[in-house]
Amino acid sequence: MIGGGIMSATLGVLLQELEPSWSIKMIERLDSLAVESSGPWNNAGTGHSALCELNYSPQKPDGSVDITKAINVNEQWQSSRQLWSFLVENGRIPDPEKFIHTVPHMSFVWGADNVEYLRKRHEALSTHPLFQGMQFSTDPEVIRGWAPLLLEGRSAKSLEKEPIAATWTNAGTDVDFGELTSILTRTLVDKGADLETHSEVTDLHQTMDGFWHVYGRNQSGDYHLRSRFVFVGAGGYALPLLQKAGIREIRGFGGFPVSGEFLRTSKPELVAQHRAKAYGKAAVGAPPMSVPHLDTRHVEGKTHLMFGPYAGWSPRFLKTGKFSDLFRSVRPHNLLPMVRAGLSNMDLTIYLVKQLLASPSTKFKDLQDFFPAADRNDWDRITAGQRVQVIRPDGVLQFGTEVITAEDGSIAGLLGASPGASTAPAIMVNVLQRCFPDRWDSWQPQLKTMIPATGPELSADPELAAETFARTDRQLHLS
């Protein structure tokens, strides 16, 4: 497994449960785990379940709201909760409170059109088994009760001029994926897996006997490994590594890197007034990862507030990457798709340019849309993780994740971004099905033990959904 993040850790745990006798090795180029995308300050820590993220429920031209993706994301999120609950039961996660906490999820909008959209979204979702209990209100005092900070500085006159609305549910969570990665990797090593940090993969290729040969450098010098299966969970570096592997399935794929920033405060008076993850609507042209949100974060035993993200740009594919990453990823086979993606996403280009040119005061105004009484002196700027959006061979810029597997199933890699970490178990089960078809049927009993109810099963059965929620809440110590 190349890359010491949440994806490799999740796949490793699944394989160790399914095939205890297999030899597993995790390779990480940096000196510690989860330093890139999985790190707690490199992502928003939202347990992505579509409870609050409006980009998963777009409005159709006829005014109705499409909840198809929201349901799919929530179904995948339930797989995560179930796997983690299984690992708690079996002692592989000693204390879930180290990485997951109950934090209400809210959607918060202003303006008559957005209020009407949110009302329709609530009507479409609230009767579904996975979204029961979601509340909706346009009453400022009700919203103040849910999240007082959102009403601080809003006058009665401004509320008459610009109405507000919100949805609220206590089913949301905040997740420290960096801590979870460390917990899972520790249990991997305890059960016999090998972890090597300071180890950078420089090349890999497959020989006629089906084995992969992985070459790299560590603190002792150059090394060579031989394996029947390779998983590339290296974040932004997954694309160039899969290109080096030379598999046919990566041809035509490209990547567009997007960076970001957050504002953060740990001021107790502010933290006490906002216990929620409140998501708004994205600006025109903004990628889904740039949906503005004001979040409660639990990191290393302390509570903070974080707002953002503000989009940025760098040609690096990782925060610790190189300025040449983007340019070195261009190949004859993906040049045309990348050009097509650029030409068909001019609104994204314009948005990024505006974000890059925006002054600090202009950016702070975005926070004041959520929290009008915000004071710049209370907030610090932090740099978020680097994301590489997938450019498909047809020239479509894809927001989300893409699993790439070789035809023979001997190598797989993950491209893309959100909701990524939150849905890692569902994504890795997909990897297992695609890469080990000869073992898939024999694995079903154990997979069913780890993740008892999946996908449409939960959506179609309100009683099963309610029982699953109650059980995983109890096992993960969620209120």
UniProtKB/TrEMBL annotation:
<comment type="similarity">
    <text>Belongs to the MQO family.</text>
</comment>
<dbReference type="InterPro" id="IPR006231">
    <property type="entry name" value="MQO"/>
</dbReference>
<protein>
    <recommendedName>
        <fullName>Probable malate:quinone oxidoreductase</fullName>
        <ecNumber>1.1.5.4</ecNumber>
    </recommendedName>
</protein>
<keyword id="KW-0274">FAD</keyword>
<comment type="pathway">
    <text>Carbohydrate metabolism; tricarboxylic acid cycle; oxaloacetate from (S)-malate (quinone route): step 1/1.</text>
</comment>
<keyword id="KW-0285">Flavoprotein</keyword>
<keyword id="KW-0816">Tricarboxylic acid cycle</keyword>
<dbReference type="Pfam" id="PF06039">
    <property type="entry name" value="Mqo"/>
</dbReference>
<keyword id="KW-0560">Oxidoreductase</keyword>
<dbReference type="InterPro" id="IPR036188">
    <property type="entry name" value="FAD/NAD-bd_sf"/>
</dbReference>
